[in-house]
Amino acid sequence: MATGAGNLRYFATTEVLLRHQLVARMKPLLPVAVNRWHTKSHNQETTDSEIISGIFAPREAQMQQNVNDKPALLCEIATEDYQRDPTRFGSPEVAALFPDFEHLDLRTRGATIRLRHGGSGPPLLLVHGNPQNHVCWHKVASELARDFHVILPDLRGYGDSSLPDPGEDHCNYSFRSLAEDLLDVMDYFNYKEFFLVGHDRGGRTAHRLCLDHGARVRKVCLMDIIPNHYVWANPTKNWVIRTWHWGFMAQPEPFPERLISSVPAEYFLKSRMTIRGGTGINFFANAAMEEYIRCYTLKTITGSCRDYRATATVDFEMDTADKDRKIDNPLMLLWGARGQSPERAKAFVDIWNDYASDIRITQGMNCGHYMQEESPQEILAHFREFFGTV
Fold this sequence. Notes:
This protein is an alpha/beta fold.
């Protein structure tokens, strides 16, 4: 069983204790801002201070350090690493889901980003949501790699990416900051323009990226989201019940972290995903679910909550300022529509018409929220139709 949130009941209430307890319990899990594989032998231990500086350094300090630097490769993860240290790098079974993909840690201006990439052709950036990581694309990634260079990052705070300080008003977990990581990743691969897909939190990050840097996105697909500004400005009873986690995870640190950490990660994730998905969880591959459980440590719980705090504060401020701006990128909207009425589908499109000016395709799919894992063949067909033409 992978390390679960329930093993971290002692969650500290101070930043200092959080740092040192997290290092002590989760040292094998966390990417660090040093190139252990290139500067140290495999037998040398990375120090606690190196981990703390890489994981917790304020974004402002990292920006000062890296302001003139290009995104940098920190390490390449090799096949033997999955056997040597699956707690840190994931299992061989997960690696087998991504044949011929490379597995890297990259330093951006504000974080350390774990990613996989593979294939050849036009660049296609796929961005996951909560509470998952890049592995959620495993049922479509290899097929897409036949025609695209597929790039699959873990958002900062999620998966095996690092945990920067929250910053003032949670600014380091705003969708703008998350989008800047993605731009740095694409800069590393020397892509000035690219295709973009975002699901759930990744969709909100993609929306912000199009608002801030729309010229870099050739086409964008947003999956199962409506705009952040609209969500907060138009709450409904059904939304409050179905998406209870928005308000809960936005509560002050460490209240939600402590409660989530009081139960095993497997219990929390499976219960949470059953409620959110609406169609059960039997379609999840065992290896993928085990990977979500492995990664759902105190680090990821903390990063996720910081993400939701930013959504309710600094993101809403940005989105309110931009509420009358429409993205003009060619846009495909997909959403899980099982059990929903035709009126709900019409409302979904009508909402987006106020936020986007070039909607090319809209499709409610006969599935729940976790679309790429429940209906991968339909997702592939939509991606090929939309991204297969310039």
